[in-house]
């Protein structure tokens, strides 16, 4: 029998480790070479972007692009940058930038209950879009702790915001769902409600379960659905009647299908809020005799109050999740800060405040025309120039860190979580998405590893193409920006 001497054992181990190191080193070198091979001189960017947008499949697409250096504002690529485009949710960049400038990152929205007289109480909303049942419970418990267990008259004051609850140019199809929910002074649970549809035994209608069980007594349901045998294709369509709290449900699910979840916009947000508040009061042992709807600006004695999270968190919800309700509430909040705002349309006042403060950031007033704060309207018109000016202006603002932190991170968070995965853009691009029918946009910041920081806006209108195809093209352009180098 042969034995290896100890020094020969170590020698063998050393040879194995050395060969492993060389192999890994060669792999890393190869990867680095591949990465360097993909690097792009800034002088090559124009032809590289042109090669994407000039593909035959995009012949009828209207492109607007502006790419600049963040530090020097040097234009790296430009195409139709001064022209108007439907921006979709890129509009939220303007809204949140103005809100931060005017209100500050620590601003909070207060919801109050006042005592107007013996047994007379008034709840006053100021458009907190984050208000939920938890906060209503807190209001009720605050009253109970002060020994208030009977309310003769409860006045529901929804007058803080004036004007229409939805913009008249919003598509009627959108008004049915959570992303087109109405915006008023007393918002609760996003002014929406969740309904779940479960398959039953074959031949039976789908079972309807509300997340808030009381909603079942408020809505009229037209259930034209059926449960089918296993593996049969399922489809469900849920629509809300615009004339009343009526849901029309059509379609089918197989017995082994997962439940279908739909989030519906409430029909009457003031009534909806009142219903939720009365329930919270009752559960806390506070009984209400009568309810009235009206306004009274006395604000004599505040007996209960809750506050929203700081504005920094609200705008993170706007930009990261692209929350329309939050964006519209912030626009109206801007309007509520105006002097002489009594009885005037709060959203229109908010747009004036927005324009004034964007101009201070260096945004050309003529470079955009918007009618809402979320981008849901097809009447919004913004140029790539305006978006880049907004992004550039915020880099000089004390609020820049908060603003940038509110944007989705490529491949990591929000509406960009599933985009740019395993690409050079992952983790180094922060940008706001935008999507409507025939519209795909993306604007934001890039921090390339071998080039100075970049600001970009890419807008595609009248696409006539699948959204996924347009997003892929836009993503290809952004990936080019991450590979820029000085040469």
TrEMBL record:
Keyword set includes Cell membrane: no
E.C. number: 3.4.16.4
Keywords recorded for this protein, A-Z: Carboxypeptidase, Hydrolase, Protease
Pfam families linked: Peptidase_S13
EC class of the enzyme, as a word: hydrolase
UniProt entry tagged with the keyword Protease: yes
Molecular-function annotations in GO: serine-type D-Ala-D-Ala carboxypeptidase activity
One Gene Ontology biological process: proteolysis
Top-rank taxon: Bacteria
InterPro entries noted in UniProt: Beta-lactam/transpept-like (IPR012338), Peptidase_S13 (IPR000667)
Protein family according to the UniProt entry: Belongs to the peptidase S13 family.
NCBIfam families with a match to the protein in the record: PBP4
Name assigned to this protein: D-alanyl-D-alanine carboxypeptidase
Species this chain originates from: Richelia intracellularis HH01
């Amino acid at each position: 029998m042969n034995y290896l001497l100890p020094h020969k054992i170590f020698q063998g181990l050393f040879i194995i480790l050395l060969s492993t190191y060389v192999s890994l080193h060669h792999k890393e070198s190869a990867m680095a070479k591949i990465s360097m091979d993909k690097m792009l001189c800034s002088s090559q960017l124009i032809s590289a972007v042109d090669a994407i947008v000039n593909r035959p499949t995009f012949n009828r697409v209207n492109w607007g692009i502006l790419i600049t250096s963040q530090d020097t504002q040097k234009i790296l690529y430009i195409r139709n940058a001064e022209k108007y485009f439907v921006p979709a949710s890129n509009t939220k960049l303007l809204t949140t930038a103005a809100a931060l400038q005017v209100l500050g990152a620590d601003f909070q929205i207060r919801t109050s209950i006042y005592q107007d007289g013996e047994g007379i109480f008034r709840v006053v909303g100021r458009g907190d879009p984050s208000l939920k049942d938890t906060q209503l419970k807190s209001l009720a418990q605050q009253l109970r702790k002060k020994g208030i267990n009977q309310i003769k008259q409860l006045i529901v004051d929804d007058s803080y915001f004036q004007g229409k609850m939805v913009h008249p140019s919003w598509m009627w199809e959108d008004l049915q769902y959570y992303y087109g929910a109405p915006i008023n002074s007393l918002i609760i649970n996003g002014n929406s409600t969740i309904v779940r549809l479960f398959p039953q035994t074959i031949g039976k209608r789908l079972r309807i379960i509300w997340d808030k069980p009381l909603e079942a007594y408020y809505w009229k349901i037209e259930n034209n659905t059926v449960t089918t045998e296993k593996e049969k294709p399922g489809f469900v369509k849920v629509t809300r009647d615009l004339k009343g709290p009526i849901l029309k449900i059509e379609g089918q699910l197989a017995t082994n299908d997962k439940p279908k979840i739909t989030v519906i916009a409430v029909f009457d947000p003031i009534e909806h809020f009142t219903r939720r508040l009365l329930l919270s009061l009752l559960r806390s042992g506070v009984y209400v005799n009568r309810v009235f709807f009206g306004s009274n600006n006395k604000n004599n004695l505040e007996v209960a109050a809750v506050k929203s999270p700081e504005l920094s968190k609200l705008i993170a919800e706007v930009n990261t999740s692209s929350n329309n309700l939050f964006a519209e509430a912030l626009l109206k909040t801007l309007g509520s800060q105006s002097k002489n705002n009594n009885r005037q349309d709060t959203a229109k006042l908010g747009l004036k405040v927005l324009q004034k403060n964007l101009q201070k950031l260096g945004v050309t007033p003529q470079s955009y025309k918007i009618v809402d704060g979320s981008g849901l309207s097809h009447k919004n018109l913004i140029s790539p120039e305006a978006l880049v000016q907004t992004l550039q202006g915020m880099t000089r603002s004390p609020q820049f860190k908060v603003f940038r932190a509110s944007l989705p991170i490529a491949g990591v968070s929000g509406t960009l979580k599933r985009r740019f995965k395993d690409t050079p853009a992952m983790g180094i691009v922060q940008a706001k998405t935008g999507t409507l029918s025939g519209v795909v946009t993306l604007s934001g910041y890039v921090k390339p590893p071998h080039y100075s920081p970049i600001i970009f806006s890419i807008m595609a209108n009248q696409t006539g193409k699948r959204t996924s195809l347009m997003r892929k093209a836009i993503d290809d352009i952004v990936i080019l920006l991450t590979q820029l180098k000085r040469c």
